[in-house]
Amino acid sequence: MDFIKNIVKSQLFRLSSLNTLSILVRVAGGLVGSKMIALFIGPAGMAVTGNLRSMMTSLDAFCTLGMQNGIIKYTAENEKNSDKLNNVLATTFITILTTLGVIMLVLFIPAGYWSTKVFGSIDYTWAIRTLAVTLPLYAGNLVFMAILNGLGNFKRVIYLNIWGNIAGVASTSILIWQLGLTGALIGLIAYPSILFFFSVYQIHRLFPGFTFVKMRYFNKSILKGLLSYSVMMLLSAVLGSVVYIGIRNFIIERYSADDAGFYEAVNRIAGFYLMFASTMLTVYFLPKLSSAVSNDDTKGVIRSYYKIMVPVFAGGLVLVYFLRVVIIKVLFAKDFLPMETLFLWQLTGDFFKVCSLILGFEFFAKKMTRAYIVSEVLSFTILYTSSHLLIPQYGAEGAVMAHAITYACYFLVLAVYFRKKII
After folding, report:
1. Which superkingdom is the protein from (predicted)?
2. Total domain count, the chain
3. Residue 102 sits in which domain range?
């Protein structure tokens, strides 16, 4: 009982932030979206939408060149200095607009090629071209949100997310109901565009006429600083998307689209509860790791994570396992019940993933770019290789077995690498 009381009384447990509210809204929207896909499209449709989501994750990074954290940092630092703030905003907009022009052409012209690579079929060429055309709205929303965060307008960001999510989920649900899989893909593409109109309105109120978008404000030194944030973000986004799309398509090739849909569905469930863990790390632990000066300070932060966060999360995973059938029926549909066999391996992998997250955040806190790159390449190589070895024999279950193996190895490697900061 003392252990539970200590957790409840801890600063971590009592931490209440607007960011957590935002996550709750996103999770609620994700649950509704998943239920609609399950009811009207089924497991095969879940796999297709999963591949589009993975592609859009990569585009998140490429459209902004992975500079979102840099935009927040530089905007916050220069909020009171209008000239320097103009430099930051102009450099950001001009760079991203130029990048967008190139990416739109690369997506639009060979759309059939990308459709085959992402979906395994040329039938979705229209979706790639639609995504290419709406890319400026997609990227614009990401940049505007980063600027608002940097300016400390957290309430505006939360309200944008709340109303944007409501509008996005409502419109996507109607599209799925009326158009099935086509509607789901249109909804996924259109959702960021809806958010754009909310965020551009707020930015226009702060900067009427967008007068800062002028070449004379462009600053090369600021660009260099922003790009320093790009490498790690781009690497994770690209490798992750390529590997997960490859795994889904390999399951479809060897078994069926339904099996790939079960794999995507269990990953989506994992995404909901992992969102809370990663948010708590970002809000609470990353600032503490970044400010830790001595080895003892770092040890204290990491140990508090393992004493409080990991046991609570482990308890949650056990609960998810025993309620797995109920969760499947509530979040999806009876057609998804075969995915019940995937939970044990998925949850095992997620436990090791959460154990390794705090150590992985040390790379960001201390800007250990080279070590981060090596660890990411290693983990995705293990995931891709083990998946291709296990899927032919075990199907979708082989993919989640590979997930468990990958994060067990990843945690072991990081524990050895950071052993002096743990022991």
Report:
1. Bacteria
2. 2
3. 67-228
